[in-house]
Amino acid sequence: MKTINFAVSEHNSRVYSLIFLVVKMKFKKYLIKTLTVIAGSIISAYGITLAIGAGFGGATLAILWQGLTNVTGMTIGTSSLVVAAAMIIFALFYDKKQINVGTILYQIIYSFFVDVFTKIQHYSDIKAVNFIIMLLGIIIFSFGTGLYSAADFGRGSYEAVTFSLAEKNGWKIKIVRMVLDILMVVIGVLLGGKFGICTVATVLLSGPVIQATVNTVKKSKIFKTINDNI
User: Fold this and answer.
1) Whole-model pTM over 0.90
2) Which H or E element spans position 225?
3) How far is the C-alpha of 50 from the C-alpha of 132, rounded, in Å?
4) DSSP at 164
5) How far is CA 138 from CA 23, 55, 153, 182, 227, in A?
6) Residue of 191, 215, 204 lying closest to 83 (CA atoms)
7) Distance CA 19, CA 64 (A)
8) For residue 5, with 0-12 CB atoms within 10 Å meaning exposed, 13-18 middle and 19 or more buried, which class applies?
9) What is the C-alpha radius of gyration for the chain, rounded to an integer number of angstroms?
10) Which terminus of the chain, N or C, has fewer Cβ atoms within 10 Å?
11) pLDDT tens digits, one per residue of 88-111
12) Which one, of 115, 92, 118, 116, lies nearest residue 104 by Cα?
């Protein structure tokens, strides 16, 4: 009888150890994902404020933020949060699988730091220098977006709308994104947002930088380890 009890006790001990190990690994996984989302949010917020404050217009979605700010007097960060909230609500009703914890976390941190960085940014009186700052801003923004996206912790609000429309209706993602970009720019300009070189440069540069960042981060040792083991 003692032998049986000992065997049962040993078995239970192994089960508990296995459960503890799984919980520990899952905690590590979600901690890494959360920290990645936070880092990507702050970096992308810094990049976008560099880009749109340089005086060469705004990125596609930022033009809408500028327009809302012009009409309502809200800060850029608050405008970005309002737009994101509307998109998240739409995606929740239309295709809720596009939304996850990272979607909300990213947008709150991103919008907050857009306002923080907008207040402390400084630019040159020389246009050429500001142009370089704008390009650096686009690259930094794209890197941050790629970092956040690599976490696979929920899509951004704009991406959630894009993918929900495309997947629910069988439309091509690139066509949906193109139509949405045009719509955001047109509405933004009508509200007083600025279309310019930054808009075009963002379209040309952001995609390749985001893709390269996602590929690099996902191949990194720490991400491969948590994805292979869980």
Assistant:
1) no
2) helix 221-229
3) 10
4) H
5) 39, 13, 23, 19, 30
6) 191
7) 48
8) exposed
9) 22
10) N
11) 999 989 988 888 888 888 888 988
12) 92
